[in-house]
């Protein structure tokens, strides 16, 4: 399994790039959101990857964060969502957008992706709702990943990557705190997602307070 790839960006097409690693070119499919943030041809690039194995084809899909990679894998587990639809969703609203939409049950945000209808979007929101807390608590970009790359370039070089906004670290801490208070993971994730949407730069205490207000009984 190729989980991460680093090398020289040779060329880009509409939906994929070719990365040269020690003289071997790897075709990696990426979303539109990632494509626009990649470095110029000839420069170094690194991506987390997921390998899709089919009877007659092998395809690598590239991501700048572990959160995005994990959502791709989970999205494809839903009936009606293949690799193309998953990449369309991630390219349209991004990994954080997917986390927020699924935690809040906002299927309309998912349906904005090309090729994803309302019924399929609703299925995604329902089937993956319980997965949202653990994914929202994840973090990590390519530059932050520890250990050696699965495939490395011959000559170490500064790696440029898409300017992806990192997840608010307070989000994971707030989810943990609410879990310790006895709130169900799904309810906690929905409240935290809504709180983060209202104030993306909030620290942990602010997120907890905002989430608790949202979780408080109404009336």
TrEMBL record:
<comment type="function">
    <text>The RuvA-RuvB-RuvC complex processes Holliday junction (HJ) DNA during genetic recombination and DNA repair, while the RuvA-RuvB complex plays an important role in the rescue of blocked DNA replication forks via replication fork reversal (RFR). RuvA specifically binds to HJ cruciform DNA, conferring on it an open structure. The RuvB hexamer acts as an ATP-dependent pump, pulling dsDNA into and through the RuvAB complex. HJ branch migration allows RuvC to scan DNA until it finds its consensus sequence, where it cleaves and resolves the cruciform DNA.</text>
</comment>
<feature type="domain" description="DNA helicase Holliday junction RuvA type">
    <location>
        <begin position="1"/>
        <end position="62"/>
    </location>
</feature>
<dbReference type="InterPro" id="IPR010994">
    <property type="entry name" value="RuvA_2-like"/>
</dbReference>
<dbReference type="Pfam" id="PF14520">
    <property type="entry name" value="HHH_5"/>
</dbReference>
<feature type="domain" description="Holliday junction DNA helicase RuvA C-terminal">
    <location>
        <begin position="170"/>
        <end position="216"/>
    </location>
</feature>
<dbReference type="GO" id="GO:0048476">
    <property type="term" value="C:Holliday junction resolvase complex"/>
</dbReference>
<keyword id="KW-0238">DNA-binding</keyword>
<keyword id="KW-0233">DNA recombination</keyword>
<keyword id="KW-0347">Helicase</keyword>
<comment type="subunit">
    <text>Homotetramer. Forms an RuvA(8)-RuvB(12)-Holliday junction (HJ) complex. HJ DNA is sandwiched between 2 RuvA tetramers; dsDNA enters through RuvA and exits via RuvB. An RuvB hexamer assembles on each DNA strand where it exits the tetramer. Each RuvB hexamer is contacted by two RuvA subunits (via domain III) on 2 adjacent RuvB subunits; this complex drives branch migration. In the full resolvosome a probable DNA-RuvA(4)-RuvB(12)-RuvC(2) complex forms which resolves the HJ.</text>
</comment>
<dbReference type="GO" id="GO:0006281">
    <property type="term" value="P:DNA repair"/>
</dbReference>
<keyword id="KW-0227">DNA damage</keyword>
<keyword id="KW-0067">ATP-binding</keyword>
<dbReference type="GO" id="GO:0005524">
    <property type="term" value="F:ATP binding"/>
</dbReference>
<comment type="similarity">
    <text>Belongs to the RuvA family.</text>
</comment>
<feature type="region of interest" description="Domain I">
    <location>
        <begin position="1"/>
        <end position="64"/>
    </location>
</feature>
<keyword id="KW-0234">DNA repair</keyword>
<keyword id="KW-0547">Nucleotide-binding</keyword>
<dbReference type="InterPro" id="IPR013849">
    <property type="entry name" value="DNA_helicase_Holl-junc_RuvA_I"/>
</dbReference>
<dbReference type="InterPro" id="IPR012340">
    <property type="entry name" value="NA-bd_OB-fold"/>
</dbReference>
<keyword id="KW-0963">Cytoplasm</keyword>
<keyword id="KW-0378">Hydrolase</keyword>
<dbReference type="Pfam" id="PF07499">
    <property type="entry name" value="RuvA_C"/>
</dbReference>
<dbReference type="GO" id="GO:0005737">
    <property type="term" value="C:cytoplasm"/>
</dbReference>
<feature type="region of interest" description="Domain III">
    <location>
        <begin position="158"/>
        <end position="219"/>
    </location>
</feature>
<dbReference type="GO" id="GO:0000400">
    <property type="term" value="F:four-way junction DNA binding"/>
</dbReference>
<dbReference type="GO" id="GO:0009379">
    <property type="term" value="C:Holliday junction helicase complex"/>
</dbReference>
<dbReference type="Pfam" id="PF01330">
    <property type="entry name" value="RuvA_N"/>
</dbReference>
<dbReference type="InterPro" id="IPR036267">
    <property type="entry name" value="RuvA_C_sf"/>
</dbReference>
<dbReference type="InterPro" id="IPR011114">
    <property type="entry name" value="RuvA_C"/>
</dbReference>
<dbReference type="InterPro" id="IPR000085">
    <property type="entry name" value="RuvA"/>
</dbReference>
<protein>
    <recommendedName>
        <fullName>Holliday junction branch migration complex subunit RuvA</fullName>
    </recommendedName>
</protein>
<dbReference type="GO" id="GO:0006310">
    <property type="term" value="P:DNA recombination"/>
</dbReference>
<dbReference type="GO" id="GO:0009378">
    <property type="term" value="F:four-way junction helicase activity"/>
</dbReference>
């Amino acid at each position: 399994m190729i989980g991460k790839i680093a090398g020289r960006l040779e060329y880009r097409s509409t939906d994929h790039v070719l990365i040269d690693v020690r003289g071997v070119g790897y075709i990696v499919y990426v979303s539109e959101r990632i494509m626009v943030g990649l470095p110029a041809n000839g420069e170094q690039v690194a991506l987390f990857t997921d390998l899709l194995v089919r009877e007659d084809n092998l395809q690598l899909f590239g991501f700048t964060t572990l959160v995005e990679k994990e959502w791709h894998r989970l999205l494809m587990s839903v009936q009606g969502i293949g690799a193309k639809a998953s990449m369309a969703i991630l390219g349209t609203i991004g990994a954080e957008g997917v986390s927020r939409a699924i935690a809040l049950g906002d299927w309309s945000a998912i349906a904005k992706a090309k090729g994803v209808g309302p019924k399929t979007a609703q299925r995604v929101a329902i089937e993956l709702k319980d997965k949202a807390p653990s994914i929202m608590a994840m973090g990590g970009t390519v530059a932050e990943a520890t250990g050696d790359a699965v495939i490395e370039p011959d000559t170490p070089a500064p790696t440029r990557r898409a300017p992806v906004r990192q997840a608010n670290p307070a989000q994971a801490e707030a989810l943990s705190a609410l879990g310790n208070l006895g709130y169900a993971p799904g309810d906690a994730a929905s409240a935290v997602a809504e709180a983060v949407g209202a104030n993306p730069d909030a620290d942990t205490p602010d997120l907890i307070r905002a989430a608790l207000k949202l979780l408080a009984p109404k009336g």
